[in-house]
TrEMBL record:
Protein name (database record): ATP synthase CF0 subunit I
PANTHER family (alphabetical): ATP SYNTHASE SUBUNIT B, CHLOROPLASTIC (PTHR34264:SF3)
GO MF, one example: proton transmembrane transporter activity
HAMAP family: ATP_synth_b_bprime
Role summary: F(1)F(0) ATP synthase produces ATP from ADP in the presence of a proton or sodium gradient. F-type ATPases consist of two structural domains, F(1) containing the extramembraneous catalytic core and F(0) containing the membrane proton channel, linked together by a central stalk and a peripheral stalk. During catalysis, ATP synthesis in the catalytic domain of F(1) is coupled via a rotary mechanism of the central stalk subunits to proton translocation.
Coiled-coil blocks: 71-98
Length: 184
């Protein structure tokens, strides 16, 4: 402690301006430097710090006001939603009461409609079966006719000679001539 007081006392006994040196006594130089720095900070930083704190205070107040406004809006929306919920619950109860009888009616209508559709499908099926049977019968008849015709042609070609062929042609021509005379 004695050194600290000595350094303050020796302020008046500074060496001449021509020499420059460092004071290596830490205890003597730190309190002086700290007091100078703190004094400058308090003098110049007081306004800046005050402005920073005021700005921060205003932002916090604005945030609180915005939060209150949002809270009020949210409460209003909540009340509207609750009113809508009550209305929907009342409508749901009405639908529930009226819905059961309507469900039964719709069920009966659906059953009747399904029965009619099944009946129509059965008719369509029977018609299709009948049509397919007719078509199959026609195809079989055509094949039988073609086979009979081919068999007859084969038989005619094998038994028909030139002389028989010429006689058949002349008999047909005579018949055609007779028919022509009758019509004229």
């Amino acid at each position: 402690m004695n050194n600290v007081t000595d350094s303050f006392v020796s302020l008046g006994h500074w060496p001449s301006a021509g020499s420059f040196g460092f004071n290596t006594d830490i205890l003597a130089t730190n309190p002086i430097n700290l007091s100078v720095v703190l004094g400058v900070l308090v003098f110049f930083g007081k306004g800046v710090l005050s402005d920073l704190l005021d700005n921060r205070k205003q932002r916090i107040l604005n945030t609180i006001r915005n939060s209150e406004e949002l809270r009020g809006g949210a409460i209003e929306q909540l009340e509207k939603a609750r009113a809508r919920l009550r209305k929907v619950e009342i409508e749901a109860d009405q639908f529930r009461v009226n819905g059961y009888s309507e469900i039964e009616r719709e069920k009966l209508n659906l059953i009747n409609s399904t029965y009619k559709t099944l009946e129509q499908l059965e008719n369509y099926k029977n018609e299709t079966i009948h049509f397919e049977q007719e078509r199959a019968i026609n195809q079989v008849q055509q094949r039988v006719f073609q086979q009979a015709l081919q068999g007859a042609l084969g038989t005619l070609n094998s038994r028909l000679t030139n002389e028989l062929h010429l006689r058949t042609i002349s008999a047909n021509i005579d018949m055609f001539g007779t028919m022509r005379e009758i019509t004229d």
